[in-house]
């Protein structure tokens, strides 16, 4: 038990899939896990542990933004001995070359967040996922024939920003798009010697202004779930 998680240590698997939304965590658990058991509901940050093709997996929500994912991923890595966290989230993209529902595997997270600095004085503006996890995800995508875009994402602290230059982020910093959690997740994995990765489904295109409808989102997120689950077997 920690200040934010009521689960018993043995009720959390070594590998955690982490969507932002608690209801998505519930849906994933009910759809894909055998014998899912609710192991956390503090603040409605739902976590379920069950098995997928015999492998024990926990699906737990992160909430939105770096402070939230920072708390949960830190506690899971540090106090629950979790080894792997794969964030499965959504993102907005900065290019019309990417379409709604495309899958992105993050290979670098660029940020102006103070999360890493405030956590341990780290001044890096770019943090990286686990090469081992990313290789597994890339190989799984090939095996199950899912097209995967791989690149840098901008990890922002602000959803409604009037001060972020999309062109600069795309052209100068090579960011394909924006989400709000990977930088803090990668930082925690780094300082605690653990593995993190981040798979994203494009839910918004900030150039064409398209965004995903609720039903379409559901199907697209199904593909991301299958990719994540098959990658950790
Ligand atoms: N901004 C930040 N995070 C996001 C977005 C966005 O436009 N879309 C999905 N996650």
In summary, what is this structure?
The chain is of the alpha/beta class and 233 residues long. It is 34% helix and 29% strand. The longest helix has 18 residues, at 214-231.
Question: Could you characterize what this model shows?
Answer:
By secondary structure, this protein is of the alpha/beta class. It has a single domain (9-231), classed as Nucleoside phosphorylase domain (Rossmann fold, 3-Layer(aba) Sandwich). It has seven helices and ten strands. The chain has helices at residues 22-32, 66-79, 115-120, 131-143, 166-172, 182-192, 214-231; strands at 15-18, 34-40, 47-52, 55-60, 84-93, 103-111, 126-127, 148-155, 175-179, 195-205. It has a five-stranded mixed beta barrel with strand order 5-9-8-6-10, surrounded by four helices. Strand 8 (148-155), helix 5 (166-172) and strand 9 (175-179) form a beta-alpha-beta unit. Helix 2 packs parallel to helix 6. The radius of gyration is 16 Å and the shape is globular. The chain starts with 14 loop residues before the first strand and ends with a helix. The model has no long low-confidence stretch (mean pLDDT 97). The structure holds hypoxanthine. Residues 90-92, 156, 159, 178-180, 203-204 line the site of hypoxanthine (HPA). The site of hypoxanthine (HPA) has 10 residues, from strand 5, strand 9 and strand 10.
| Number of structural units classed as domains | 1
Helix proportion of residues, in percent?
Answer: 25-40%
Approximately what portion of the residues adopt beta-strand conformation? 25-35%
Overall CATH architecture:
3-Layer(aba) Sandwich
As laid out across the biggest beta sheet, the strand order is 5-9-8-6-10
Q: Might you state the CATH topology name?
A: Rossmann fold
Structural class determined from secondary elements: alpha/beta
CATH structural class: Alpha Beta
Radius of gyration: 16 Å
Question: What is the string of SSEs from the N terminus onward?
Answer: EHEEEHEEHEHEHEHEH
Can you count the beta strands?
10
Mean pLDDT rating: 97
Bound molecules: hypoxanthine
Counting H and I runs of at least 4 residues, what is the number of helices? 7
Q: In this structure, how is the largest beta sheet organized?
A: 5 strands, mixed, barrel
Distance between the termini: 27 Å
Specify the CATH homologous superfamily: Nucleoside phosphorylase domain
Low-confidence stretches: none
- Outline, from the CA principal axes? globular
């Amino acid at each position: 038990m920690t200040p934010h998680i009521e689960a018993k240590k043995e009720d959390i698997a070594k590998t955690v899939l982490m969507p932002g939304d608690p209801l998505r965590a519930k849906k994933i658990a009910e759809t894909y896990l055998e014998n899912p058991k609710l192991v956390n509901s503090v603040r409605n940050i739902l976590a379920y542990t069950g098995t997928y093709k015999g492998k024990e997996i926990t699906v737990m929500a992160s909430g939105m933004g770096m402070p939230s994912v920072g708390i949960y991923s830190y506690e899971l890595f540090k106090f629950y001995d979790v080894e792997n966290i794969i964030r499965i989230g959504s993102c907005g993209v900065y290019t019309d070359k990417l379409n709604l529902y495309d899958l992105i595997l993050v290979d670098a997270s660029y940020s102006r967040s103070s999360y890493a600095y405030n956590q341990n004085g780290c001044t890096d503006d770019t943090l990286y996922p686990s090469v081992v996890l990313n290789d597994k995800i890339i190989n799984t995508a090939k095996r199950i024939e899912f097209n995967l875009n791989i690149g840098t994402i901008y990890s922002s602290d602000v959803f409604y920003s009037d001060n972020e230059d999309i062109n600069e982020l795309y052209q100068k910093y090579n960011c394909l798009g924006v989400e709000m959690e990977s930088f803090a997740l990668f930082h925690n994995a780094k300082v605690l010697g653990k593995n993190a990765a981040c798979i994203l489904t494009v839910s918004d295109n900030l150039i064409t202004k398209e965004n995903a409808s609720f039903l379409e989102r559901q199907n697209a997120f199904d593909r991301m779930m299958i990719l994540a689950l098959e990658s950790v077997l």
